[in-house]
């Protein structure tokens, strides 16, 4: 009932609709309408009441509310089911707890994360209302070996969103980061549940520093935000919707046609590391090489100091001789 009332308000957004009209459409009492309106307000929806006019829903740009997001999506699967939190420990952790019984395409989003994390268990600073902290649950029918390729799709989608909405020049740092002016603005964490030949689900966690005005001293030289780079506050919802719409198009191409072509073209053409001398950190081992290409499988192809070409599946990559994050 609450969702039906919300839909009626959204259909008339900005215009008043009387409690009597709502009650008649929803076939409940005006008292029930009032109770549901109050519950919607508690969720964060801005609903104005005026004597003899009724209720009207106002545009909300401060929170990433499900209904406000969904009306701007062109997707068929991605984001059709959205679970929103004001605060949570980690969207990835929550997603893993519900993934088995949740439809593919479900989006978990929170205004803040108390224990956000990136690759290798690193902490991810996720202050309230400043960023996009989200996780997608996906259940594609392909073997587990293909799962890691979703990171390239996610990176390409974020790059497209930033480019289209803000016009900022960002670069993709293989395997899972977006950087601007040598500092990290986005991190991607892809995890999966699978058996030897069966993929149960994939979760793609994306954290984007959007309107952060400052960072803790320990990461200030490595992290930036879209606000700091653009010099103006960013509409988080507009950016989020653009990323989700881009993600579904690239994801569908991969699932239905088995191709990463467009995603890889974006990752190659906007790479932070290709053609540069890099240091590859794998566990306790370090190796110097030149980043040559990203393969059709999403692996990093490098030329070692010994002149041998090899492909890197995982690892931390930094550019030799450059200061800052990359």
Structure commentary:
Residues 67-255 form the BPL/LPL catalytic domain. One of its GO terms (cellular component) is cytoplasm. Biotin binds at residues 90-92, 113, 117-119, 184. Pfam families: BPL_C, BPL_LplA_LipB, HTH_11. This is Bifunctional ligase/repressor BirA. With 326 residues, this protein is of the alpha+beta class. The chain folds into three domains: 1-57, Winged helix-like DNA-binding domain superfamily/Winged helix DNA-binding domain (Arc Repressor Mutant, subunit A), CATH 1.10.10; 66-270, Bira Bifunctional Protein, Domain 2 (BirA Bifunctional Protein, domain 2), CATH 3.30.930; 276-321, SH3 type barrels. The protein is 30% helix and 26% strand. It has helices at 2-11, 19-26, 30-43, 66-70, 91-98, 150-166, 226-230, 236-257, 261-269, and strands at residues 46-50, 54-58, 82-85, 106-110, 131-138, 171-173, 177-180, 183-194, 199-209, 277-282, 285-294, 300-304, 309-312, 316-319. The strands form three sheets. A seven-stranded mixed β-sheet has the order 3-4-5-9-8-7-6, sandwiched between helices. Strands 13-12-11-10-14 form a five-stranded antiparallel β-sheet. Helix 2 (19-26) crosses helix 3, helix 6 packs antiparallel against helix 8 (236-257) and helix 6 packs across helix 9. The relative contact order is 0.11.
């Amino acid at each position: 009932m609450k969702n039906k009332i919300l839909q009626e308000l959204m259909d008339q957004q900005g215009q008043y609709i009387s409690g009597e009209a709502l009650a008649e459409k929803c076939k409940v009492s005006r008292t029930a309408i009032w109770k549901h309106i109050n519950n919607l307000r508690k969720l964060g929806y801005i609903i104005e009441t005026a004597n003899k006019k009724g209720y009207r829903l106002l545009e909300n740009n401060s929170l990433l509310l499900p209904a406000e997001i969904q009306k701007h999506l062109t997707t068929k699967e991605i984001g059709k089911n959205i679970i929103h939190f004001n605060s949570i420990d980690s969207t990835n952790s929550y997603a893993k707890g519900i993934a088995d019984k949740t439809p593919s395409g479900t989006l978990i989003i929170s205004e803040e994360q108390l224990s956000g994390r990136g690759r290798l268990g690193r902490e991810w600073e996720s202050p309230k209302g400043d960023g996009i902290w989200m996780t997608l649950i996906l259940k594609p029918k392909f073997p587990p070996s293909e799962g890691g390729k979703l990171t390239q799709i996610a990176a390409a989608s974020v790059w497209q969103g930033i480019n289209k909405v803000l016009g900022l020049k960002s670069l993709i740092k293989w395997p899972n980061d977006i950087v601007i002016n040598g500092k990290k603005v986005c991190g991607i964490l892809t995890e999966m549940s699978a058996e030897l030949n069966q993929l149960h689900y994939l979760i793609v966690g994306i954290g984007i520093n959007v309107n952060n005005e400052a960072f803790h001293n320990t990461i200030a030289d490595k992290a930036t935000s879209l606000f700091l780079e653009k010099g103006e506050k960013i509409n988080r919802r507009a950016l989020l919707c653009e990323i989700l719409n881009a993600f579904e198009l690239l994801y569908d191409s991969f699932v239905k046609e088995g191709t990463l072509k467009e995603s890889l073209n974006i990752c190659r053409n906007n790479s932070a590391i290709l053609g540069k001398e890099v240091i590859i950190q794998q566990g306790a081992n370090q190796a110097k090489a030149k980043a040559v290409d990203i393969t059709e499988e999403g692996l990093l192809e490098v030329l070692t100091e010994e002149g041998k070409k090899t492909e890197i599946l995982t690892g931390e990559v930094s550019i030799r001789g450059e200061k800052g994050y990359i």
